[in-house]
């Protein structure tokens, strides 16, 4: 898929106020600092569509972007940032879970995972929650340039083994590096395929 247009539509923390549009949506979510903004900019070939920040946990809103006038890319808040207060975390979780439960336009969720780390309980719990709520998801491993290729393979094999303990089938997996601009076609073609089916 070629990205011809990519426009910011709106930010909010209330699913009821998300764009009143039937267009299919693809959500991106992951732990703070996982490389979500960099990935969104890489996918859309825009330098700062999503802001890349050195400060984890900064973007706490549901951000809609209109791509090629035909689908929405949804940038969801990063989770798991320790410096957010408990009260804030609770509110934060509610509107994320509301988004998943009350947004029928959502077609697929891309859960971003830093390829360097072992499976983190917060990510595994979140996948379980998505599964229970029958929300289709794929895993995007980020920052693959930080490892040698055999380490990438090892880490994915370990991750897959852990997932197979809970899941009968593995979700689609993508390996990306925003620095090296790899994995872009695979993710975009996957979205295109779903949009056409
Ligand atoms: P977010 O908090 O998930 O949106 O993460 P950001 O996109 O802001 O990235 C967090 C940090 O990781 C920044 O310092 C980025 O430059 C760095 N980063 C993001 N993606 C990559 C990548 O593919 N490779 C490398 N080496 N660094 C990355």
UniProtKB/TrEMBL annotation:
GO terms for molecular function: GTP binding; metal ion binding. Its cofactor is Mg(2+). PROSITE patterns: G_ENGB. The keyword Cell division applies. Residues 22-197 form the EngB-type G domain. It holds the Pfam family MMR_HSR1. GO terms for biological process: division septum assembly. Keywords: Cell cycle, Cell division, GTP-binding, Magnesium, Metal-binding, Nucleotide-binding, Septation. The keyword Nucleotide-binding applies. Gene3D superfamilies: P-loop containing nucleotide triphosphate hydrolases. Necessary for normal cell division and for the maintenance of normal septation. Belongs to the TRAFAC class TrmE-Era-EngA-EngB-Septin-like GTPase superfamily. EngB GTPase family. This is Probable GTP-binding protein EngB. It comes from Psychroflexus salarius.
């Amino acid at each position: 898929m070629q990205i011809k247009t990519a426009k910011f539509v709106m930010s909010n923390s209330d699913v009821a106020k998300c764009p009143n549009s039937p267009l299919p949506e693809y959500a991106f979510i992951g732990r703070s600092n996982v490389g979500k903004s960099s990935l969104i900019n890489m996918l859309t070939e825009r330098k700062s569509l999503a802001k890349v920040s050195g400060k984890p946990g900064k973007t706490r809103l549901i951000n809609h972007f209109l791509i090629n006038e035909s689908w929405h890319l949804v940038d969801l808040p990063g989770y798991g940032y320790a410096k957010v207060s408990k009260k804030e975390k609770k509110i934060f979780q509610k509107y994320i879970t509301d988004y998943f439960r009350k947004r029928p336009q959502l077609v697929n969720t891309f859960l971003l995972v830093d390829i360097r780390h072992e499976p983190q309980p917060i990510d595994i719990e979140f996948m379980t929650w998505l599964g229970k709520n029958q929300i289709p998801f794929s895993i995007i491993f980020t920052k693959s340039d930080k490892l040698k290729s055999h380490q990438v393979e090892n880490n994915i094999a370990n991750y897959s083994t852990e997932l197979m303990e809970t899941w009968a089938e593995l979700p689609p997996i993508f390996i990306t590096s925003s620095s090296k601009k790899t994995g872009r076609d695979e993710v975009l073609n996957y979205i295109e395929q779903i949009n056409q089916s």
